[in-house]
Write a structure and sequence with these properties.
Nuclear movement protein nudC, cytoplasm, alpha+beta, 3 domains, Immunoglobulin-like
Length: about 190
């Protein structure tokens, strides 16, 4: 085995180890937050533990286009800050469950993007690692599902500096056209 092959195998191992470490770090950061959150493409759900026996009137909850705060009356806010993206305030709600958890439902304004975090000053998650099933991809009709998959593919391609599906289609069409017209010079052609 050459040193090169050895290095390649090692880098694969290292890459896996680094991904695991990042996943663990991300998990620890998220668990340290004073709330838990999940998301789908169109919405974010947050659960905030509060002392048992808490009632709605003990709380001040502010849900604004780019701001969220939950405060127990007479105390420091449990969470407060700027939302990472805008929401539809009129479609967002909160409720208290079993007098011990505040459930907040936020409708995203842009229903085609993943959030990296809830509040801008909190640790981010790597949205490239979001599994499509989180968005209940299987529940979508074929057209929407195709659109979401294309969007996720294009996002990944962009982050890797590779062409998006539309750009790939243009390149394919150009290749076919070039093959049909060998007499034309495309060396200075710009694709837009």
């Amino acid at each position: 085995m050459s040193a090169n092959e050895d290095h390649d195998m090692l880098s694969e191992e290292e890459r896996k180890q680094r991904e695991n470490e990042e996943r663990e770090r991300e998990k620890a950061e998220q668990e340290a937050l004073p709330y838990k959150w999940t998301q789908e493409l169109g919405e974010v759900d947050i659960s905030v533990p509060v002392p048992k026996g808490t009632r709605g009137k003990d709380l001040t909850v502010v849900i604004a286009k780019k701001k969220l705060s939950v405060t127990l009356k007479g105390q420091e806010p449990i969470l407060s800050g700027e939302l990472c993206k805008e929401i539809k305030v009129e479609d967002s709600t909160w409720t208290i469950q079993d007098q011990q958890v505040v459930l907040i439902h936020l409708e995203k304004l842009n229903q085609q993007s993943w959030w990296e975090n809830v509040l801008t000053h909190h640790p981010k998650i790597d949205t490239r690692k979001i599994e499509p099933e989180n968005s209940k991809l299987s529940d979508l009709d074929l057209e929407t599902r195709g659109m979401v998959e294309k969007m996720m593919f294009d996002n990944q391609q962009k982050q890797m500096g590779k062409p998006t599906s539309d750009e790939l289609k243009k390149l394919e069409a150009l290749k076919r056209f070039q093959a049909q017209h060998p007499e034309l010079d495309f060396s200075n052609a710009k694709i837009s």
